[in-house]
Every structure is written in structure tokens, then in C-alpha cells.
Design a protein that fits this description.
Elements: H1 2-19, H2 27-31, E1 35-42, E2 55-57, H3 60-71, E3 74-75, E4 85-91, E5 96-103, E6 109-113, E7 120-122, H4 125-135
Antiparallel strand pairs: 1-2, 1-4, 3-7, 4-5, 5-6, 6-7
Organism: Staphylococcus massiliensis S46
Protein name: Lipoprotein
Length: 136
């Protein structure tokens, strides 16, 4: 009887653990492997989107720079009123993600989804420096 109870409890713990979502992995990081194209336009205002793109990245080596940075981006609270760019990320399934992008005083890239989200994501200095070389 005791074995049955222990096994039942263990089963429930494993089942609940398997149902947990990956909270430590951001949506940005989850989608970064599917990036097909990245476009940049000048920032015009919070939660507004400028579609006059003046930079476009489709080469594999350029896309890889963005992918590597986005994959390790961490969600952090950051209060920014003015960004440098609007960025449109096109995924391989044809869907788009629109974000604001800037670099902070520590030369880290800070990203925020355009719209209702207040979440900001920060890319570490190593990966940020690669993105900065590419876009600034």
C-alpha cells in the first residue's frame, strides 16, 4: 500500500512538472530560430510603428547575428521612452513580430514588443556588440 501511495505521488509530481511552461525562456527566444528576415526603420514613438524601412537583413550571416542575440535575451524591467529603431522580424511561416530596439548606456540591446506588452528584453554585451556593429 505504501509503495502505491509513493508511486502515485511521484507520478503526479512528474506529470505536473511536465505540464509547466518554460517561463524562463522568452517568447523572443522561442521564436528566434525561425527568423527569415529583419527590417529596421527609425523610431517614431512608443507603440507606433514606422514602416519606412531603411535597413533590411536577409543574408544568413546577418540573420544569425540576430538569432544568437535574441536566443539569449532575458526579460528585464527597463523604463525607456525613446528607442532608436522599429524592427520587423519575419518568421519562416510568414508571420511578423514588431519591436522597438535601442542600446542602453552599457551598450546592451534593449527590445520591447510593440503593442500592449510592457515587457522588455536585454541582450548581453557580447551578443549586443555584434548587433550594434551590424545596425549602427
Amino acid at each position: 500500500m505504501r509503495k502505491c501511495i509513493v508511486l502515485s505521488v511521484l507520478f503526479v509530481v512528474v506529470l505536473l512538472g511536465g505540464c509547466q511552461s518554460k517561463t524562463d525562456e522568452s517568447i523572443l527566444s522561442q521564436q528566434s530560430g525561425d527568423i527569415k528576415e529583419v527590417k529596421l526603420a527609425d523610431f517614431i514613438g512608443l507603440d507606433a510603428f514606422n514602416e519606412n524601412f531603411d535597413k533590411e537583413y536577409t543574408k544568413t550571416e546577418d540573420i544569425d547575428v540576430f538569432k544568437k542575440g535574441f536566443q539569449q535575451a532575458e526579460e528585464k524591467k527597463y523604463d525607456i521612452e525613446k528607442y532608436d529603431y522599429n524592427i520587423k522580424i519575419t518568421l519562416s511561416d510568414g508571420t511578423d513580430r514588431d519591436l522597438h530596439l535601442t542600446k542602453n548606456d552599457q551598450d546592451e540591446i534593449v527590445l520591447k514588443y510593440i503593442g500592449d506588452s510592457t515587457d522588455t528584453y536585454v541582450i548581453d554585451p557580447k551578443h549586443s556588440s555584434e548587433i550594434i556593429k551590424l545596425i549602427y
